[in-house]
Amino acid sequence: MAGDTRKTASLKSLEDANKTYALALVYKYSYNKEYLIKAAEFLTAWAKTNKATEDPINETKLEDMITAYDLIRNDIEPADRTLIDVWMNPIPNCTAARLKAIRAQPSTTGIRTG
After folding, report:
1. Which of 28, 46, 80, 104 is the most exposed place for a label (fewest CB within 10 A)?
2. Is 61 in contact with 106 (CB distance < 8 Å)?
3. What are the angstrom distances between the C-alpha of 80 and each of 3, 12, 24, 113?
4. pTM of the model
5. Cα 20 to Cα 64: distance, rounded to the nearest angstrom
């Protein structure tokens, strides 16, 4: 598919998954809110524009997004959580059981927001 601009754009946008995971991981180690905010921005941008295909092969490319969300879900704004939850629900690797487990985790900031 050399020269396919849609494929090139799709692959380029998937770099966001790696960035989001890295930001979430750095936040969890440093508790620097700048990393949390930027990771949440990536996740909410994807939640607003990406629609799950429910194809496990395609959706595995979002695993870093799912893992990033797992790390920071309890520390982001409630409205962002709701938006991202709705987006992730149909993603095959992000089952309802996994989302329920993520939601049950205590907040790392000591503030329970969800």
Report:
1. 104
2. no
3. 36, 24, 15, 11
4. 0.71
5. 7
- The answer to whether residues 89 and 81 touch, using CB atoms and an 8 Å cutoff, is no
- Break the chain into its structural domains and give their ranges: 16-104
Question: Residue 14, SS3?
Answer: coil
Q: Is 52 helix (H, G, I), strand (E, B) or coil?
A: coil
Q: Residue 108 carries which DSSP code?
A: T
> Could you tell me which of 36, 111, 110 has the C-alpha nearest to residue 80?
36
- In contact, 88 and 99? CB cutoff 8 Å: yes
DSSP assignment letter at 90: T
Q: Are 81 and 40 in contact (CB under 8 A)?
A: no
